[in-house]
Amino acid sequence: MLQSFLQNILNALQWGSFYSLIALGYCLVYGVLLLINFAHGDIFMVGAYIAFYCCMFLLGKFGVFAGLPGWMVLAVAVPLTMVLTAVVGVTLERIAYRPLRRKGVNRLYVVITALMCGLILENGNLALLGASRKSFPTLVPIKVFEIFGVTVTNIKLMVIGVAILSFLLLHFIVTRTKIGMAMRAISYDRFAVPLMGIPADTVIVFTFVLGSGFAGLAGLFFAMTYPVIDPYMGALIGWKAFIAAVVGGIGSIAGAFAGGFLLGFVEIMVVAFFPSTYRDLIAFSILLLILSIRPTGLFGVARRTKI
Known about the structure:
Elements: H1 2-33, H2 40-58, H3 70-103, H4 107-129, E1 134-135, E2 144-147, E3 150-153, H5 154-176, H6 178-188, H7 200-225, E4 228-229, H8 233-248, H9 253-273, H10 279-293
């Protein structure tokens, strides 16, 4: 019984790591702009496809050169995927969000635009690359370790470690750097910040770079763990990561990180004790109960709006 519980804990940590990495992107954009970027789940999907083509190219599958060893491909693919996915996120910000922000339109129109951007990414991928699923290549041989009867793989440990390191890095950037201080200033008063000489657009672009980069990182490791990708893979997991960010406290980095692991833990435990068809029903009922008790989320703080 104890071994089964510990095994489920490890599985929950791995599943929650994906939710946490995606939820961090939601948290960053909302914390700075008060914008819910509903296209973020599809940026995660684009990141997985970018990782696929980067890895296939570096492995020499396209016949350009002999190819690199798997571990070297992974080392190169991680920063390359994050950079290229960040370019996609910044492009969306420049084309779709910035014109609306400069016109001062109602926030509802920006949310609708974000939903449309997500649909464009999904159907654009479908039109360009087709509906067939793609098999992600094996970069690192899977090694299975057994500790006190609990089975864990090197990929699982890697995913959990990457999620924790990403959170620590993001927390350091936001709390210990000048650009992080500017991000917090914009979240507090976006209209007063330009009067203090802070380039608001630069800070907002950097926010999208960070959020989209982490989504690309999540896409890469998700594809490594579950090596089949398709154009609609980001829709459901993106919505769930958004819910995790809300439960943790939208706008709070620690809340988004904890919310992702909480959702992963709840889903895995539900599957462990109930039929898998009840997973979403019971998991979201528990999350709804948490929000009914604490509407601002676990780490969220109620904001006061001056009139």
